[in-house]
Specification:
- The chain is of the alpha/beta class.
- The protein has a single domain, classed as Roll (2,3-Dihydroxybiphenyl 1,2-Dioxygenase, domain 1).
- Helix content is 18%, strand content 38%.
- It has two helices and eight strands; from the N terminus they run βαββββαβββ.
- The chain has a four-stranded mixed beta sheet with strand order 1-4-3-2, with helices on one face. The chain has a four-stranded mixed beta sheet with strand order 5-8-7-6, with helices on one face.
- Strand 3 and strand 4 form a beta hairpin.
- The radius of gyration is 15 Å and the shape is globular.
- About 4% of the residues have low confidence.
- InterPro entries: Glyas_Bleomycin-R_OHBP_Dase.
- This is VOC family protein.
């Protein structure tokens, strides 16, 4: 299978508060708002993060606080400085000899982890 785009959906309990949090996380307003209860940020050429109230999700197994997103970045230190400037505190951790990562949770506990390859 060859996919041409990735869309990750995050279920949240307080749509307004979480939309504001993700706007701070990404440093800008949503790129798209297909309807009143959906916002999207395009974070790479073919990758979007979508935030929806948990009641709008078709899959009832999805619950606020159960998502985990991994975002690969070129310079983790640069991302951490940007996040700190947006009042999002996160500390880097060494996962292996190959990557550094920095996890942060949204207001519902959904995990967003920024990952930098350090393999040479």
């Amino acid at each position: 299978m060859n996919a041409h785009q990735v869309l990750a959906t995050v279920a949240v309990s307080d749509f307004a508060a979480s939309s504001a949090w993700y706007a701070r996380l990404f440093g800008r307003a949503p790129d798209h708002s297909p309807n009143a209860s959906c916002v999207e940020w395009q974070i790479a050429k073919c990758t979007r993060i979508q935030v929806l109230p948990r009641n709008d999700l078709v899959d009832q197994l999805s619950r606020a606080g159960c998502a985990s997103l991994g975002i690969m970045v070129a310079d983790l230190d640069e991302v951490l400085v940007e996040l700190q400037g947006r009042q999002i505190d996160v500390a880097p951790q060494a996962a292996t000899h190959f990557v550094r990562f920095a996890p942060v949770s949204d207001p519902d506990g959904n995990l967003v982890t920024f990952v930098e390859s350090i393999a040479g």
